DNA sequence: GTCTATAACGAGATAGAC
DNA sequence: GTCTATCTCGTTATAGAC
């Protein structure tokens, strides 16, 4: 079975990026963690930029599968949005920032292929949210003011920001109350927050 | 007049942190920009951590003065919130991330004095917002659901997240529409967004 | 207050043996 | 597929002259 070490490298690197940022770790950190040499890492990933790109693509795929599962479960739009926010919450519970939220901060220092992959992640998230928001309007469970795409980007950036600011405080409840409020503003029932 | 070079160093370093992150620049970058040597920088700031701390303190002071000015202008709560969001917008227009939002991403790699200074920045912001939100409730211009402090942290993290995600797109309008929506949810008039 | 020079270390990367 | 060895360069930092 090939790809086992490759997967372990991706796992370790992913955690390091989410915790320390793309410029806050090195091949040496991964090598130490996996009890490998830096040279071995270069066998699997030619350079840090290639590793970074593989990281984002895997993350985007995994995120996409999670969104597919939410669709497959087939609830109301508010239930789907709550499940969406829970993906973020689970990442933060593991003391991590969203991979692409972290890379958005590092954006100016990234190679072009990584940049494009980061933007693609947010595009896909917002496109999925737009579909859910439109479902909510149709079924009468959500009441949007403004366009669905504006509501979607406000939601994504609100959740990313809530993760960003919650981490220094080490306080999940900071994320949770921001997330709850962001979702409540879209609900057709004026849910008391 | 002393402190001129010191100020130039702070200006250059501040911009570098806001654009590239704390681990995305070096003393060499500052030295090149100012046509100085790295050794000269060490005369003014013993190390990168001390420079970083001075950076945050100056930024927090400047931010605090901007908040004082908003208070001094003495409008309604919604006007104050709009002026608050405009501080963020001006930073982003200069293609920069909020200094402390960027450092929140880098948080795990920072020395303890810098960490404390970052948290202090957000504490002060939220405390100021709580006062404005309470003013709005009193004067009837804002209608809060939930506590003022929850609304304040949702606002700060929403604005920080909107900056974070707008930067990869290089698109101010992404920030602006998120900011407009965040403020609209607090308004007593259900402003069409 | 700024310089030259250099130390001491870590980064990303490669050659080539096994 | 992993290793040892090495290269080159960047990074933070210091000593000491001017």
Biggest beta sheet attributes of chain A: none
H-E order of chain A: HHHHHHHHH
Identify low-pLDDT runs of chain A: none
How many angstroms separate the termini of chain A? 50 Å
Task: Give your account of this protein's structure.
Two copies of one chain form a homodimer. Chain A has 193 residues and is mainly α. Helices cover 75% and strands 0% of the residues of chain A. Chain A is built from nine helices and no strands. Chain A has helices at 4-20, 27-34, 38-44, 48-73, 77-93, 99-105, 112-139, 148-169, 172-184. In chain A, helix 5 runs antiparallel to helix 9. The termini of chain A are far apart. In chain A, 45% of the residues are buried. Chains A and B meet through helix 6, helix 7, helix 8 and helix 9 of A and helix 6, helix 7, helix 8 and helix 9 of B. Chain A binds a DNA duplex (18 and 18 nucleotides) through residues 5, 26-28, 36-40, 42-44, 46-48.
Keywords:
homodimer, 193 residues, 0% strand, elongated, DNA-binding
Short summary of the structure?
The structure is a homodimer of 193-residue chains. The first copy, chain A, has 193 residues and is an all-alpha fold.
């Amino acid at each position: 079975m090939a790809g086992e070490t490759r997967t372990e490298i991706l796992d370790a690197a992913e955690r390091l990026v989410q915790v320390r940022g793309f410029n806050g770790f090195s091949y040496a950190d991964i090598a130490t963690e996996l009890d490998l040499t830096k040279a071995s890492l270069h066998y699997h990933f030619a350079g840090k930029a290639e590793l970074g790109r593989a990281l984002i693509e895997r993350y985007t795929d995994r995120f996409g599968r999670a969104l597919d599962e939410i669709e497959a479960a087939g609830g109301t739009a508010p239930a789907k949005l709550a499940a969406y926010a829970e993906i973020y919450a689970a990442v933060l519970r593991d003391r991590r920032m969203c991979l692409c939220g972290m890379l958005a901060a590092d954006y100016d220092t990234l190679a072009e292929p990584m940049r494009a992959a980061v933007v693609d992640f947010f595009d896909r998230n917002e496109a999925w949210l737009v579909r859910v928001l439109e479902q909510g309007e149709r079924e009468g469970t959500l009441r949007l003011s403004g366009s669905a795409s504006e509501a979607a980007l406000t939601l994504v950036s609100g959740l990313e920001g809530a993760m960003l600011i919650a981490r220094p405080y080490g306080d999940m409840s900071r994320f949770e109350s921001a997330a709850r409020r962001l979702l409540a503003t879209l609900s057709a029932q004026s849910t008391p927050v």
